[in-house]
Amino acid sequence: MSKDETSSPVKAKPSAQGAKQQEREARLAAALRENLRKRKAQARARVERAPSSDEGKS
Description:
Elements: H1 3-49
């Protein structure tokens, strides 16, 4: 066996790990987007509930 033949199974692992890494990154990206949507919705709700600084001052 040559040196390249023994390392070929090792090369197969990174591609399997690379696929897992890509799946993980996709899940994390989706979770981050969802978290951002929630935070923006919470911020909008706070702005709508809070009276503006101009109201009630005359």
